[in-house]
From TrEMBL:
PANTHER family: TRNA N6-ADENOSINE THREONYLCARBAMOYLTRANSFERASE, TRNA N6-ADENOSINE THREONYLCARBAMOYLTRANSFERASE, MITOCHONDRIAL. Substrate binds at L133, V134, S135, G136, G137, D167, G180, D184, N278. Its cofactor is Fe(2+). NCBIfam families: gcp_kae1, T6A_TsaD_YgjD. InterPro entries: ATPase_NBD, Gcp-like_dom, KAE1/TsaD, Peptidase_M22_CS, TsaD. This is tRNA N6-adenosine threonylcarbamoyltransferase. Its EC number is 2.3.1.234. Fe cation binds at H110, H114, D306. It is an enzyme of class 2 (transferase). HAMAP family: TsaD (MF_01445). It is found in: Cytoplasm. It comes from Nostocoides veronense. Belongs to the KAE1 / TsaD family.
Amino acid sequence: PLVLGIETSCDETGVGIVRGETLLVDAIASSVDLHARFGGVVPEVASRAHLEAMVPTIQRACDQAGIALRDVDAIAVTSGPGLAGTLMVGVAAAKALALSLGKPLYGVNHLAAHVAVDIVEHGPLPEPVLALLVSGGHSSLLLVPDVTQDVRSLGSTIDDAAGEAFDKVARVLGLPFPGGPHIDRAARDGQIAIDFPRGLTSGRDMERHRFDFSFSGLKTAVSRWVEGQRAAGAEISVPDVAASFQEAVVDVLTRKAILACQDNGVEHLQIGGGVAANSRLRAMAQARCDSAGIALRVPRPGLCTDNGAMVAALGAQLVAKGREPSALDLPADSSMPVTEVTA
Ligand code: ATP
Ligand code: MG
Ligand code: FE
């Protein structure tokens, strides 16, 4: 099936077009530069930017794919989770398209789409697959029977998401927003010189929170360390702090992901979400999966962060597997649970 997907859950207006398991185009207009000076995404600003970018981005995607809108078999859209106001812009646009073209509409879960995008990168996903979903708002270990069916959450963060921790620590270090890519880059010139805490990995925590994560203590530990150095008048090496912080996050993520595979007898690990773009996470996951005999799949960095291709990819799977389309009055659900695939 030929599916057009629309993503507006945060600050990226994404329009992707997928034919079956092949990505035809991934068009993105980002409002990230408008938010940078506020140190975070401003919902009102993002909503307005989506409104302005929507029609031109759809047009550009169709032009680049060499298709006409009437050629598509279905429209897919992120119905949640995300910012209520920005989601509404995408959902309204998708409804208008589906209605005027007379095509089915699929409201999909943004988080399931972060996993499904791997299909247009590496082909069909093994069933089941263990997914480590690490993004700006979520950090979860998911058991995915197939991407069109509701997933089982094995655990998730009990406080900050991994991406949120990257962004907060970047701010402490005076790096620009969003901080993840800046920490990644700074860490390449740094040494893992500081032993920061690995949240929820002690013996007792592993009993109660085996597959949960916690990153707020780590963020506090980094802030305290930086403040301590400053108070002592000592020089702070941003690359060293970045590398040491990143190592602590990546160590816990990969350790627990592999343990989850082993506990559940799953031999395939997929990593998705913006933090999956992190070079150290990709390298450590590959090394540890190799030693554990687990096959690893991570899409290219550009498909890890928010985009329209991921929504189209999941939509194409839903059409191919004959799943019911959503109702035309489908809501934008800002707190859509990670376990639900469609609205
Ligand atoms: P969610 O998917 O939970 O709704 P989101 O859509 O806002 O959240 P994504 O776009 O999936 O989040 O990911 C953005 C996050 O990924 C940001 O926190 C960003 O700092 C982080 N990120 C992006 N690239 C990297 C990188 N190379 N290293 C670490 N973090 C990164
Ligand atoms: Mg973004
Ligand atoms: Fe996302």
